[in-house]
Design a protein that fits this description.
Layout lengths: L3 E5 L3 H13 L3 E5 L2 H10 L4 E5 L8 H12 L4 E6 L4 H10 L3 E4 L4 H12 L4
Helix pairs in contact: 2-3
Length: 124
């Protein structure tokens, strides 16, 4: 059975690229664009990896709340943070919230695949 991955990002073009790349690598992929949508999917499915942007709305860094939610409900799920903001303080806060890896956008799809392989043992 393929690993299930949840991608959360409000940039539809990036989500499409991530989804297509990971699905081509044999992953089952679900996508969400907002925090509430992601929480609904998390309540219904188990994920090997959650890939999330930190800034999920114009209101701020909703991704940090999502990381905490995932970590409180599943210690087995690996969390990869993608963000266009590379501030060291933000990376430290994401790590303290439970993120397993932190990638700065833009990045190559292969780098995302390699990071998934590192944190969850998958291959893309």
């Amino acid at each position: 059975m393929a690993d299930r991955v949840l991608i959360i990002d409000d940039d539809e073009q990036l989500v499409d690229a991530y989804r297509d790349y990971l699905a081509g690598g044999g992953y089952e992929v679900d996508c969400a664009q907002e925090l509430e949508e992601a929480q609904t999917l998390l309540a219904h499915f188990s994920y090997s990896v959650v890939i999330t942007d930190l800034r999920l709305s114009k209101l701020g860094f909703g991704g940090l709340d999502l990381i905490k939610h995932v970590r409180e409900n599943s210690s087995q799920t690996r969390i990869i943070v993608l963000t266009g903001y590379g501030w060291p303080e933000l990376k430290a806060e994401a790590s303290a919230s439970g993120a397993d890896a932190f990638l700065r956008k833009p990045m190559r799809l292969k780098d995302l695949g390699n990071t998934i392989a590192q944190v969850a043992g998958g291959q893309v």
